[in-house]
Amino acid sequence: MVSVTPLESAIDRFLLLYSISKASECVENLGDTKLQKFIFLSEWEMIDKHERGFCYYYLKYEKGPYSFDLANDIKIFLKTDILRKQQWDISLTKFGKRIVQDFSGLVDQNPRAVSIIQGIIDKYAGYSLQELLDVVYSLPHPYVRGYTIRTASLKMPLLYKLPEEKVVVPFTVNKEEVEDLLVSLSKNGLKHWQAVREDMRKPEYLTYKEVFGSVRI
Predict the structure, then answer these.
(1) What is the model's pLDDT at position 216?
(2) Residue from 139, 147, 4, 131 nearest 68 by CA
(3) How far is CA 76 from each of CA 84, 144, 165, 191, 192, rounded to the nearest angstrom?
(4) How many whole angstroms separate alpha carbon 54 and alpha carbon 175?
(5) Where in the chain does DSSP place strands (E)?
(6) Percentage helix, strand, coil for the chain under 3-state DSSP, each rounded to 5
(7) 120-4-74-38 Cα dihedral, nearest 10 degrees
(8) Cα–Cα distance for residue pair 185/166, rounded to 1 Å
(9) How many angstroms from the chain centroid is the CA of residue 192?
(10) 66 has which bridge partners?
(11) Phi and psi at residue 184, in whole multiples of 5°?
(12) 142 SS3 class
């Protein structure tokens, strides 16, 4: 397994928020399991096309492909009021939508990665959870011949970061965006925001840019 850099983790988090913003527009009951599978299918297609995008590590778990790093990102986003969960349905808060808007330049600069995410959402938006699970379980193992996702053993690795030498289409981020991503969507940045949110009496009046400064895009 190839290690993931702090910048790549921050990009994962942005693409995760972007995916949720798009999926929540057309997917009913976007819970943890559905979201895990949407990201898995998006990442698989990116890797298959040798494009840099998601770098989440997936293994076979109780309900198929599962990323503990992705689950942890969702947990942090819920704690920091970037996401909300109502009756298992996950969506962005106003603050979460503001983050996606502030980093909209990344969407414009990476149309191929974004189109993969949108394509997966469009294709499977109307699927029930069981229908989506059936599709995913029937897929062949990405790396090991003779296995499907269903027959892969528990905790067997399924997806991981595409090695740099195999990347044909990189994920484009300029120098200013690198700094802003690391400040705001890195592990430390999210911890900082969580502390700020806990201290604020009226968080609805504080904008994302007021916390982290102007995002240069």
Answers:
(1) 47
(2) 4
(3) 11, 33, 32, 8, 11
(4) 20
(5) 58-61, 64-66, 83-86, 89-92, 157-159
(6) 55, 10, 35
(7) 10
(8) 26
(9) 20
(10) 59
(11) -100, -30
(12) coil
Contact residues for 128 (Cβ-Cβ < 8 A; gap 6+): none
> In this structure, what token pair is assigned to residue 206?
């504080």
Q: How confident is the model at residue 129 (pLDDT cuts 50, 70, 90)?
A: very high
More confident residue, 2 or 111: 111
Whether the Cβ atoms of residue 17 and residue 208 lie closer than 8 Å to each other: no
- What is the per-residue pLDDT across 164-198, written as a single tens digit (0 to 9) for each? 999 999 999 998 889 888 888 887 777 777 776 66
Torsion of the alpha carbons at 68, 69, 72 and 73, rounded to the nearest 10: -140
> Tokens representing 105?
């330049």
**Tokens 């269903």, located at residue:** 150
Q: Each residue of 65-117: pLDDT tens digit?
A: 999 999 999 999 998 889 999 888 999 999 899 899 999 999 999 999 999 99
Cα 156 to Cα 60: distance, rounded to the nearest angstrom: 5
